[in-house]
Amino acid sequence: MRNFPSVFALLAVLLLVCGGARGEGVVLAPGVQSADVTPELRYWPSLEPEVSAALGAWEGGAFGPDLQTVSYGPGYSPETWAGTTITNDAALDGRPADTFILTLHAPLVSGVRLFVIREGGLTENLMDYSIFAPFDPLDHAVTRLRAPEFALAPGETVLLLAHVQTGPFPSFSMALHSPENLAQSSFYWGIGLTAFYAFAIACLVFFFGFQAAMGSWVGALNSALFAAFLGLIAVIDGLFWRFFYPDHPEWQSPVGFGMLFAISAAGFLIAGAGIGAGSRRAGRWVSALALVALAGFCLALVSPGQGAALLSYGLIAAMLGCSVYAARVGQGRGPVPPVGAVLLARLCMGGAVGVFVLILTGLGGAWLDAPLAIRAVFFFLLLATMTMLTANVIALRRRHLAEVEARVAALEAEAERGRELLESERNYIRARDLAAQRQRQLATASHDLRQPLMSLRMTFDSLAAEMQPEVKTRLNDAFDYLSSLATGYVDESVPEADVAEEAAAEAEAYPLAVPLGTVRQMFEGEAASKGVALRVHGCAEEVVVPPLVLMRIATNLVSNAIKYTREGRVVVGVRRGGGLRLIVADTGAGMSEAELARFSEAYAKGEASTGHGLGLSVCFELAREAGLRLEARSQPGRGTCFALWLEG
Predict the structure, then answer these.
(1) Which of these, 324, 326, 301, 325, lies nearest to 312 by C-alpha position?
(2) Which residues pair with 174 in a beta bridge?
């Protein structure tokens, strides 16, 4: 810490020495072929056009190391004076004077006047260039301005003064070349320029072809946008002026500003379309910024100066920000691109924005070559856009392929279900045919039973005179029930028209007392023989339920109730609350829900059953076919209750 003041003083001395050395001007060593003049330039921001005034300012020490410009107004180009001394340090041995050519790298410069002032005040005007004059190839070395040759004798020192109207780029650079060195450098500059445009055009053609082949119209529009960007770079390099309108220099400014504002306008339209996918209102606002770009172009036509250039730069910066936001919105809504592609695109976009900020703010200073920086921005943005769009298209294609595969799998599953349905339909047809065959067999058997029943009935009638009235009535009911069953099975096999006619006939109302009385007479003796009390409560209500269906359901339910009730009672009656329903309840062993569901299926029976397991299934099937509802409630050890809803 004690030595800090000494170190600080030493650094200050070194800086002063370096600053003084820089002010010594350009010293050309013997045999030198080129020299960079820019680091030794001093600047005087002034609108004074006369070289004599600039010479006085130089001699008076008004020139400083920092580049500063002044302008008459926003519609005029910035101006400044630059000066330095050039010394030929060759030995005074009688050798001839050396010839040098001064080049100026200042893209879109509006005007340049170069003066060489020798000892004794002799002034040579090397260049009087104006962008408003027709294009002259002799004034250019590829993309640089070149002055005519001038001689510099050994040991001679001259003062170089340049009045520069910088145009949209406030910085410029100067260099000295020998004629041979300039020819060689021009060759390399031309090769580099050709390689740049060839590579850029190849990238754009590939990018456009790839995006068009993938069906991405956004990618194709971005390709057109970058083609306009490349056209702007060509304007900066003077290629448009050189090849398309060399005799119309007044077109240079409108074309350049037109491409600047066209880039920002097209970018706003593309970004607005992307943002509109997430927020339609925000997308419209971003797209409306294209009108601001159009207004800026109109302003540039009226006042093509620094103000219009700054406005175009600001719009391009805003367009870049909107494009980044649109990319994030698209990334959130669309398929997720690879992480590496996103990282590369962000790095490229960050580099482009950083370089653009250096250009706009002037923080790059003399070391940042504006045309080279713009080329870097072009390639950074092109690489970022190509990477993201290509990654998004690939991700979209992958998702589309996955959807196609899922659809194919769904179609395969549907085809498999179709095959299963076809097999089920075949099984159904076989079962239906088998059922029809069984029905015909049953109808045939029922038809064959009708004749013996008639004979048995006639025999019974002849013997009925000696029977008790109760026994006679009970046997008559049994014969009627058997005859109705046989007739019913035969009727089920007749054509639908006959069935419809019989159904219409059966739709007549009849009192419930008739089937209930028949049930009591049929099962009273069987219940008494088992010690089970059978209670049948009569009812005067009339119903239109087919009597055969009602009798078959009731007899099956009562028969099962008496069969599986060892002691207690079986109650048969009618309830009216909530709807008319026939109730058959017993105090038998009861069933669990699983047993009740299993015994409701055909041919399912318990271990102690001596039947075929058809009683309950027949009841449920008959009720379903007749449009009735049969409900069952049962608890093990508590008995079972069946309810047949007859209406409602």
Answers:
(1) 301
(2) 104
